[in-house]
Amino acid sequence: MGVTEWLGRCPLVAILRGVRPDEVEAVGDALVGAGIAILEVPLNSPEPFESVRRLAARFGDRALVGAGTVRRESEVAALAEAGGRVMVTPHADPALVRAARARGLVTMPGFLTPAEAFALLDAGADALKLFPAEAGGPPMLRALKAVLPAGTPLLPVGGVDAASLPAWRAAGAAGYGCGSSLYRPGDTPEVVLAKARALLAAL
């Protein structure tokens, strides 16, 4: 499935910053059980590639598993070797998009300006992550949609929570990257499940 199909299943991307390998499967069970289908382990988490490996092995085709905060081509290689299938970056680096596409990965690189967005799309990005989204808010996303190619999936990331989701949806977001509003280090699977249900209800 392409990124549009995954976002169609559930537009929330779970950003599990700080998750540990020994807890990641239970947290993943809670999220996938709630209906969330895209799981991202940022690379500034403890042993992130081991967490990716465990999630990918546990969920197979039931979830799109990958890594965020990817900044180097060596990390793209390690992500693919761990079984990850989606790469998310915090910044606009077309070379990383090309490297990830060469390995068959879905790419959701970060951007903040139109120039960055077009450069990433020219490199073959599947979707674009507006980050930090709270800097411009829904009006910025709406303006970007007017100039980017029709159908470009835009996902706000940064400060997205149940209260702000309706405004982002009205602005035309295709998906939503949710970090602390879904998971904080130390959250139990039960807490994560309750957060997931609250976000899904807000949609």
Automatic annotation (TrEMBL):
One Pfam family for this entry, by name? Answer: Aldolase
Q: Where is the signal peptide?
A: none
Give the keywords, sorted.
Answer: Carbohydrate metabolism, Lyase
- Which principal EC class is assigned to this enzyme? lyase
For this protein, the record's InterPro entries field holds: Aldlse_KDPG_KHG (IPR000887), Aldolase_TIM (IPR013785), KDPG/KHG_AS_2 (IPR031338)
Keyword Cell membrane included in the entry's annotation: no
According to its UniProt record, in which pathway does this protein act? Carbohydrate acid metabolism
GO MF terms here are: 2-dehydro-3-deoxy-6-phosphogalactonate aldolase activity
Give the E.C. number(s).
4.1.2.21
Show the PANTHER family listed in the entry: 2-DEHYDRO-3-DEOXY-6-PHOSPHOGALACTONATE ALDOLASE-RELATED (PTHR30246:SF1), 2-KETO-3-DEOXY-6-PHOSPHOGLUCONATE ALDOLASE (PTHR30246)
Which NCBIfam families is this protein grouped with? PRK09140.1
Assembly and partners are described as:
Homotrimer.
Similarity remark: Belongs to the KHG/KDPG aldolase family.
Its protein name is 2-dehydro-3-deoxy-6-phosphogalactonate aldolase
Q: Which organism is it from?
A: Methylobacterium oryzihabitans
